[in-house]
Amino acid sequence: MDDYSKALESYQKALKIQEKALPSNHPDLATSYNNIGVLYYKMGNYPKALKFYENNLQIAQKALPSNHPDLATSYNNIGGVYNDMGDHSKALEFYEKAYKIRDKALPPNHPDLAQSYNNIGRMYHHLADYSKALEFYEKALKIQEKALHPNHPDLATSYNNIGGVYKNMGDHLKALEFYEKALKIDEKALPSNHSSFATSYNNIGGVYHNMGGYSKALEFYEKAHKIREKALPSNHPDLATSYNSIGVVYSDMGDYSKALEFYEKALKIREKALPSNHPNLATSYNNIGLVYSNMGDYSKALEFYEKALKIREKALPSNHPNLA
């Protein structure tokens, strides 16, 4: 975390000098805006990241031809922020802009095209259109298996994505197969405290959880949490994901007070870090409602369920499974 703060300080000093010395549409300014945006994104400060990415895009749109690959990168970055802020239709809009450019400008086996397929797949995944998601994820994987080294981290991302669709479709063994492929690559390619490990551990934990292997699930969720706790700022949304996952296991094991403790930790972060209509906030409210219901406090449960429903009605398409 200190590394991010130090880097941010350096970039901001450089930006201050550039803003005084350079014309407002200078490419070096665009680079600085992008670098600062990337840091805020990694720190989980999505509104700040969006602001800097939009500054970068403003310059890029003036300075570059409309089919330039750097413009695609700008659209892609903005799509990523909207995705993490829970605005999946807005994210899809920007990811498709990026894809349109890349499709024209790049050879058909270029890794950046694979990235676009993955991103679009992820949006369909969030919108619960699993067959469409799988179609895009598999397009990405096809390119990556040809274009990349077999231990490349981007391959692990694709395996994780495909595993996620199979998990949501209830095919746990198939999900586990892809998640373990991703973990194998992480083990060869990355340092043991890298955040990608946390993603893989969390995913594998999720499959064991769905299969009823609670102690195994807890073991993987706690591994993920340990990495995130060291690597991320204390209010990062990924930490909330870990708290939430651990809470769900305790809830399913019938340890409701322990579940509530973890759910409330997750909620505390999400209320600070995410926009008020983010689907993950709805998940937190719903989970806390469920615990109160299981503890027999029905009025408290209803209060949280209604909060969850309010968000979901605004944020999700009317046919989404979470509205059922």
Describe what this molecule looks like in 3D.
With 324 residues, this protein is mainly α. Among the domains are: 1-101, Tetratricopeptide repeat domain (Serine Threonine Protein Phosphatase 5, Tetratricopeptide repeat); 106-190, Serine Threonine Protein Phosphatase 5, Tetratricopeptide repeat. The protein has 15 helices and no strands. The protein has helices at 2-21, 27-42, 46-63, 69-84, 88-105, 111-126, 130-147, 153-168, 172-189, 195-210, 214-231, 237-252, 256-273, 279-294, 298-315. Helix 5 (88-105) packs antiparallel against helix 6 (111-126), helix 11 runs antiparallel to helix 12 (237-252) and helix 14 (279-294) runs antiparallel to helix 15 (298-315). The longest helix has 20 residues, at 2-21. The radius of gyration is 20 Å and the shape is globular. The mean pLDDT is 93.
Task: Give short descriptive properties of this protein.
324 residues, mainly alpha, Serine Threonine Protein Phosphatase 5, Tetratricopeptide repeat, 15 helices, 0% strand, globular
Draw up the topology in text.
Blueprint: H1 2-21, H2 27-42, H3 46-63, H4 69-84, H5 88-105, H6 111-126, H7 130-147, H8 153-168, H9 172-189, H10 195-210, H11 214-231, H12 237-252, H13 256-273, H14 279-294, H15 298-315
